[in-house]
Amino acid sequence: MSVSSTHHYSRTSPKAIWLVLLAAAGTFALTMGVRNTMGVYLSSLNNSTGLGIAKISLAFAFGQLWWGLTQPFAGAIADRIGTGRVIFVGLLLIVTGTLLTPLMTTTLGLIFTVGVLAAGGAGMAGPSVLMAASSRLVSSEKRGMATGIVNAGGSFGQFMMAPIAIGLTATMGWAASMQWLGVFALLALPAIWVLKGNSKAIAAAQAIASGKKPLTAREALLQALTTPSYCLLGIGFLVCGFHVAFLATHLPGIVEHCGMAPAIAGGSLAMLGLFNIFGSLAMGWAVNRWRMKSLLSLVYTIRAVAVALFLIAPKTPLVMLIFAAVMGVTFLATVPPTAGLVAKMFGPTNMAMLFGVLMLAHQVGGFMGAYIGGQVFQATGSYDWVWYVDIFLAVAAALIHLRIREAHPARQSLPVIS
After folding, report:
1. Is residue 94 predicted with pLDDT exceeding 80?
2. Distance CA 118, CA 245 (A)
C-alpha cells in the first residue's frame, strides 16, 4: 500500500458517500425507531401483566443500560471484523426480542426480551458502529454533517414509527403491533453490504504515512480515559442519557397522567423525532463552524429552560406538542458534536470503540432516567421531582462542557518497530 492510499477514504466518490450515509441513516432510523417507540406499549404491558409501572420501568431501564453496554464491545468488534456482520447480528436480536416480549408475564422475562435481546441488538446496530463506519469514508471537514445526517436518520425513525405503532395497536392490538414493529427492523438488511468493512485499512495507511504503529484498542482506551476532556464529555453524555430515556420511556405516561388522549402521546413522540431531524441536521452543519463544546453547552441550556417553562405552563395538548417539539430539537443533537470531538481528539481508527464507551455513559444515565421516573411516579403520583432533577442536571452539564479542551491529545500512536 502506498502513502497516497491514506487519502483513499476522503476521495471516495460523492455517490458512494451518499450511499453509505443513506445506509447508515436508514439502519439507525429502523433500530432507533423501534427502540424509542417501546414506551407506547408501557401502559398495555402493565394492563396485561399487572406488574406495575415501577417493575416494568425496571425492564426498560435495564434496556437503556444494556444498549449502552453493548456499544463499546460492538464498536471494538466492528473495528476489527467488520461493521456489516455486527449489524446483521443486531437486527436478528431486535426481531427476536420484540417477537417474544408480548409472551412475557414476569419482570425477569421482560428484562430478558426488552432489556437484553432487543436493546442489545439495537446497540449492536447503533450509533457507535454506524457513525464510525460513516466517518471512515468522509474527510474530517465533512464528518460533522455526516454524523448529523446519520443522527437525523434515528430521529426520522422515531417520527415514523410512533404513529405506525399507534395505528397498528388500534387495528390489531398492542401485542401484534409490537411484534410487527420489530419485524420492520429487517428492512435494514441490505445496509450490511453497503456498510461492510473495518478500520484496518485506514490504520495501516496511517502507520505507513506517519511511521508509527496505531494504538491497540486497549492503548487507545487508556489514552482516552486519562484525557480529562474525554471524561468530561462522558459525564455530559450521562446527563443527556437521563434526559432522553426519561422522555422516551415516560412521555406517554406523562400525557396520560395529564388526562389527554393516547393520540397525543403518539403525537408527542412523533414530534420528538420530527424536530430532532432538524436539530440533528442543524447541529451537523454547526459543528464545522463553531466550537463543539459551546454547542453542547447551548443544547443543555435550552433543555433546562424548556423544562422549567413546561412545569409552569398549563398542561394542554398544544403545550405538550410544543414542549415535545422544543425538546426534539435537542433530543439527539448532542451526538454530532460528541462524535466530532472524539474523532477530533483521537482520529477514526478506534472511534467506534471510544464513542461506544461514551454511549455506555449515556445509557447509565438512561437507566437512571427510565428507572427513577417510574419509581418517583409510583411513590408520589407525579413526575414533578424528576423534572426538578432534570433541570439541575441540564444546568450542570452546560457548565461542564465549557471546561472541555478540543485540542488533540499529545500521544496518539506508537513508533513502528521494524
Report:
1. yes
2. 16
